[in-house]
TrEMBL record:
PROSITE patterns: BPL_LPL_CATALYTIC. Residues 15-189 form the BPL/LPL catalytic domain. Keywords: ATP-binding, Biotin, Ligase, Nucleotide-binding. It holds the Pfam family BPL_LplA_LipB. It comes from Rhizobium lusitanum. It catalyses: biotin + L-lysyl-[protein] + ATP = N(6)-biotinyl-L-lysyl-[protein] + AMP + diphosphate + H(+). This is biotin--[biotin carboxyl-carrier protein] ligase. One of its GO terms (molecular function) is ATP binding. One of its GO terms (cellular component) is cytoplasm. CDD domains: BPL. SUPFAM superfamilies: C-terminal domain of transcriptional repressors, Class II aaRS and biotin synthetases. InterPro entries: aa-tRNA-synth_II/BPL/LPL (IPR045864), Biotin_CoA_COase_ligase (IPR004408), BPL_C (IPR003142), BPL_LPL_catalytic (IPR004143), Transcriptional_repressor_C (IPR008988).
């Protein structure tokens, strides 16, 4: 019973270390985990010299944006970790939405966890995990949000909060993210709260019912985005009428 109680999160459970510059906040968190850090640690940096996105893509990290990583140790049994990206997405969605003017374009989540404003990408999220020598499991949630600077992205249209009418600073945005993430992780509750998480995710989802292309490592698949199942898998209705679950891929709206 005690371990169940300990899995609930509140603001007081988290620590924060603000750096001026680092190669990557994700790498910094993993190094600290290897050195014995107990987790629930946020590391932010004003600038990253070696930021990275999904599939090893570089993430341009100039000053003016928010670069933050959260280190969690043994956040859930391995078979429940698959729903964590959805909880992270609802936290970032909440933080971004809370700093935009009411007249801003819609803030939506593109599966699994990109945050779009008016269908333009404004955030990248990268989760990385590592088994530690002492038997613990380190999981790092890396979040980069375009506040004042928009790196070119040939794959997607991009935007930043400044362009959307928000004058928030990276530090102010982080305060919103810090609170929203604590609440989302509390709801997620080490994977036990997946139903509430998927319900919230669906409310903010982008493009349900639309035609999409999903790029997998070895092929592209066309179909209709039906939604997500209760485990967070993308449900794609293919052109031959089958519904196909997809665990990972790059989604493009047509």
């Amino acid at each position: 019973m005690a371990s169940d109680m300990n899995s609930r999160k509140s603001l007081a459970d988290f620590r924060h270390d603000a750096l001026s510059e680092t190669s990557s906040t994700n790498s910094e968190c993993l190094e600290r985990a290897r050195a014995g850090d107990r987790g629930n640690l946020w590391v932010t940096a004003e600038r990253q010299t070696g930021g990275r996105g999904r599939r090893g893509r570089p993430w341009v990290s100039e000053r003016g944006n928010l670069y933050a990583s959260l280190l969690l140790i043994d956040p859930a049994p391995m078979d429940r970790l698959g729903s964590l990206p959805l909880a992270v997405a609802i936290a970032v969605h909440q933080a971004v939405r809370s700093v935009l003017p009411l007249a801003a374009e819609p803030v939506e989540i593109k599966w699994p966890n990109d945050i779009l404003i008016g269908r333009k990408k404004t955030c990248g999220i990268l989760l990385e995990g590592e088994a530690l020598p002492d038997g613990r499991y380190a999981l790092v949630i890396g979040i980069g949000i375009n506040v004042a600077v928009m790196p070119d992205n040939p794959m997607y249209p991009v935007t930043c909060l400044r362009q959307q009418g928000s004058m928030v600073s990276p530090d102010e945005l982080f305060a919103h993210l810090y609170a929203a993430m604590a609440e989302a992780l509390d709801v997620w509750n080490s994977g036990k709260g997946i139903r509430e998480v998927t319900a919230r995710w669906r409310e903010a989802a982008c493009g349900v019912g639309e035609k999409i292309t999903v790029n997998l490592p070895d092929k592209s698949i066309l179909g209709h985005f039906v939604g997500i199942d209760d485990n967070g898998l993308l449900m794609l209705e293919t052109e031959d009428g089958r519904t196909m679950p997809i665990a990972a891929g790059d989604v493009f709206f047509r």
